[in-house]
């Protein structure tokens, strides 16, 4: 049955599910979502913290792994890789049907490695090799240390989901790193037609911080709720501009795949804003929107299917210029958001591991 997600697909946008847990796999819910048009899955440390620590889905598996002598770190690895592998297998028909354009599932390197390029590369290679499926993407944060890791991994043929992108400057660097990795690969005489990447540009968190600054400084309330969409639209404008460069044309002629912009953090945090504010305004070709469960359901019920991501660009530029004129530096905002994002994932990972260690100790104690 055709759904509104299928209609979005016709405009060139894929909808990915920003959630994974064993219950989704066991119940058939993920399979239902794929049938409804969802064509990818993303995960992160916060999602796994809620899945493993906040449910009983994994208790039997944890008990069995403890009895086999595994510690908390090894158990985390086993549980997450099994979920990602099963998700990849469910999505494999989408990957095959779209000739590798879609059907991916993402897993993140531990956030504790965000400032360590060699360790990020080594862990990404290990995860990708262990899963051994062509439709897995490894999430690497767009930190200063993550950017060179992206180039190395792409050159190695590892699919990369670049995460925690907030600023246009960082996004520009991410695009270049992807191209450099492809060029390195070609210089080695290796094919580039099966290497895939997305660039995850975070949206709602921009409004959350900017709106807070507007309120704290007593600025014009009319400035609220404008920054996130404007920032994302300018990112898409950058994507279009870079895609028109001869350097990309040369790579595309060799079979290289477009590194699609992916809109992340697209559920509205402010209840005063429409539930689909960061969906309806960012629809267009060569894009992905990764959505949490409640937003996917809202899309299935009421999304406005129309190309909007490159509409009203003059307004987007004007909105950001108005914020700068009011004293809000978007460079400062996006730098803060990157730091907060890395810290939030580190905290979730630490909480997850602490919870696992308690479960391991409880099982070991009988």
From TrEMBL:
UniProt keyword list: Cytoplasm, Pentose shunt, Schiff base, Transferase
Which residues does UniProt mark as catalytic?
Answer: 139
- Subcellular locations according to the entry: Cytoplasm
One Gene Ontology cellular component: cytoplasm
Q: In which pathway does it act?
A: Carbohydrate degradation; pentose phosphate pathway; D-glyceraldehyde 3-phosphate and beta-D-fructose 6-phosphate from D-ribose 5-phosphate and D-xylulose 5-phosphate (non-oxidative stage): step 2/3
Q: What is its EC number?
A: 2.2.1.2
Q: What is this protein called?
A: Transaldolase
The GO molecular function terms of this record are:
transaldolase activity
CDD domains in the cross-refs: Transaldolase_like
Write out the GO biological process terms. carbohydrate metabolic process; pentose-phosphate shunt
Q: Which organism is it from?
A: Candidatus Hydrogenisulfobacillus filiaventi
